[in-house]
Amino acid sequence: MNLQQIEATKVILSSPQKIVIVPHKNPDGDAMGSTLGLYHYLKNRGQEATIISPNDYPKFLKWMPGHEHVVNFEKDTLHAKQLISEATIIFTLDFNHLGRIDQMKPFLEEAKATFIMIDHHQAPGDYADLMYSDVSMSSTCEMVYNFIEFLGHKDQINSDIANCLYTGIMTDTGSFKFLSTTSRTHRIAADLIDKGANNTQIHNKVFDTNTPSRLHLLGCALKNMVILEEYHTAYITLSQEELDGNHYKKGDTEGFVNYGLTLDGICLAVIFIENKEDGIVKISFRSEGDFSVNEFAKKHFQGGGHTNAAGGKSDVSLEDTAAYFVSLLDNYKEQLKA
Q: What is the pTM of this model?
């Protein structure tokens, strides 16, 4: 965020505002951690702020301070639409084009508010009036920490803010192992612990609250894993029948895709998850090294994200989606050398 934009933000926030904070659809730890962290900061500064999530989010994130105040657009549409229409500022966090908020999109497009984007994904859209976009950042939560520091209020980060921001940094860095994790990321994490983030408790609440059905679903996913040694690739499929048979709940498949990368010699891991209600196959891509799953997802699967972590979707059957994916790999054989 350049100096001009920082000063403009300071001026806007120097007077009372009606603020709406929006994460992307199917929000993850970074999306909810960043929105809740910013929410507490703004509330402590005397602002009227509300988080509106496009839809529900996983149970393992519903311990964070302030989560009970999040408005679910799907469940409370009329109230959410009113808040959006009355907002003077709309923050969009952890996404950079309005297609990521699904049915909320037309209402944000009609909004008269000033838009402020904070995000670390590639190829940002041009809808925001003020934009803090940096693809080198480990997480949007790290950026919210920087944002608060830019405004001169780092000393106002309390334990509620710290717990929320630490959660998003931890989850989006793969517990600090991804390439985007820098020495500054660690210094910020340390400062958040000093300011009250309970790192041990956060890890336990996010990663150690499994249900038997989720572990059974994981077993099913690993049993379905296909390893393509020639392409240094592993992929998993999960059908709607398998999800239903294992009592799938939102968030249950979080992290499943990463298991492929734990295999020696694998540099591309993918999971295909059938969603018959939406008529799509949801896809998550992970890679190691220089292979850009962002470019791969953008070119072939209506998606995108980061160089080593991206998402996409397919409108054909689960079987045809997997077959199409495999058919593409020969074109990338040289790039997929582990």
A: 0.92
